[in-house]
Write a structure and sequence with these properties.
The protein has 20 helices and twelve strands. It is an alpha/beta fold.
């Protein structure tokens, strides 16, 4: 029978801001945390600068994922510059888009005693190796009792043992992004509630017949979105976090069925011809430039779309942004509805023990994280995502654009948010499976072989 990871209850009870401890509970039980608009200029300017006394100016070594094409990268740079100017401290920042080589670098740094002072990183299995080298929130509060006081503790991500180490910024959701202009050119209607898998395949065929690309996706560096959702489509919100103990148990069958669904899409030519050779950046360009209709991605893509739809003054062009939308990923009609989504909170800011043992750095680290996790800054980063703020995000309805409204509509209609099962799998095991997905798509490996190899590796 399938195995349930030790992290499952921690994930369900700790990181999923939208439905607490009961899988399947409707998300709109706490709507203030589930949908958000960008804060007003006055709200952002009111962000706190210094909560705790900082001693002599210091340089903090920092790391985050706010880099590259992350939609919050420019905001992060702006806020960190503000903090440095106001406090006189400096940041030696090595932020990078997190992928497997970056994860390996973080592990190596901790092993070598070269870890950063503060880092924004995952809270699942990827953090297990260094938890003995970071501070718990409880320990920090013994000296700084108001630390992270603006966060709702029932919504923050915790470790497998139920311990709170990291202060979250924004949560996430994943769903199907839509280029409405491409759909219009192909004569395809915008997907709505109840979107089915059969209808999706029919729509993709019409888009292909119109000479356009149905789906922008790369299986070189980001195969996990399609892997996650096609598995989810063959199981349910209550069973999605079950990990196969064998290819013949229910979870194993669902994983195999999911891979076969991806292969069907590949065989029918619905992915780009270079989906197995080009990285995600190139695939995104197809979507941005009105050449591809669908893109499966996360809430962070909303801000990236806003950046691409902005003018020289960083003002979002309403005529450009309205071409992009978000729709529910199609359902096969099994245990998952189209309104059941992947999402939660899985990252946060840590303070390392190495930093804590330096009195000046300790105070500066607390001050820095307090600043970047303040209500105003979190609201700005969250956009239409999720947060763990006690008071919810700061809203300014006047700044909502068409994409914001579409996201709010989809999230409001969501029935559940379930954590990604991939976050329960150690990086080396997960990465080995993902690297073999292209071999499965071209027929050099069967779906049964792929999942069978995973089971053998996971059970070692």
């Amino acid at each position: 029978m399938e195995r349930v990871s030790a992290l499952v209850m921690a994930l369900i009870c700790g990181i999923n801001v939208l439905y607490g401890c009961t899988p399947g509970k409707p998300v709109n039980s706490e709507p203030a945390d589930s949908v958000a608009a960008r804060p007003s200029e006055s709200a952002v300017s009111a962000a706190p600068v210094s909560h705790t006394p900082v001693g002599n100016p210091v340089t903090l070594n920092t790391f985050s994922s706010f880099a590259g094409n992350d939609g919050n990268a420019l905001k992060y740079q702006t806020y960190t510059a503000q903090w440095q100017e106001k406090t006189g401290n400096k940041l030696n920042d090595t932020s990078a888009v997190i992928e497997e080589t970056v994860k390996a670098r973080i592990r190596t740094d901790f092993s070598a005693g070269a870890e950063p002072d503060v880092l924004f990183y995952f809270t699942g299995v990827d953090a297990n190796e260094f938890l003995d080298k970071v501070m718990t929130i409880e320990e920090i509060r013994k000296e700084f009792p108001d630390y992270a006081a603006n966060m709702k503790e029932s919504a923050v991500p915790v470790s497998a043992a139920g311990v709170w180490y990291a202060v979250p910024v924004n949560g996430f959701w994943e769903n199907l992004f839509v280029n409405k202009k491409v759909l219009q050119m192909a004569g395809v209607a915008i997907p709505g509630i109840g979107y089915t898998w059969d209808r999706f395949l029919t729509d993709c065929q019409k888009i292909k017949d119109a000479g356009l690309t149905p789906i922008a996706a790369s299986f070189v560096d980001v195969p996990h979105y399609w892997w996650e959702f096609t598995i989810f489509n063959n199981t349910s919100p209550r069973t999605h976090l079950n990990i196969p103990g064998d290819i013949s148990d229910d979870a194993g069958k669902a994983w195999i069925a999911g891979m076969k669904d991806i292969k069907e899409i590949y065989d029918r030519g619905f992915f780009p011809e270079n989906a197995l050779s080009e990285k995600d950046d190139a695939m995104q360009e197809l979507f941005y430039n009105d050449k591809a209709a669908f893109m499966l991605d996360g809430s962070w893509r909303v801000n990236a779309l806003k950046v691409r739809s902005s003018d020289a003054y960083n003002e979002v062009d309403p005529d450009k942004i309205k071409n992009f939308s978000v729709a529910s990923f199609p359902s096969k009609g099994f245990g998952r509805k189209s309104t059941d989504m992947i999402g939660g909170m899985s990252m946060g800011w840590y303070i390392t023990k190495k930093c804590w043992n330096d009195p000046d750095k300790k105070a500066a680290a607390v001050d820095f994280i307090t600043f970047v996790t303040s209500d105003a800054v979190v609201s700005d980063f969250t956009g239409t995502g999720a947060s763990a703020l006690k008071n919810g995000v700061i809203l300014d309805p006047g700044e909502l654009d068409a994409l914001d409204n579409d996201v709010i509509k989809v999230n409001t209609n969501a029935t559940t948010f379930t954590a990604p099962v991939q976050d329960l799998i150690a990086g080396d095991v997960r990465n080995a499976m993902f690297q073999n997905i292209p071999q499965t798509l071209i027929g050099k490996m069967t779906a049964e072989d792929l999942i069978g190899q995973f089971v053998a590796s996971y059970n070692q």
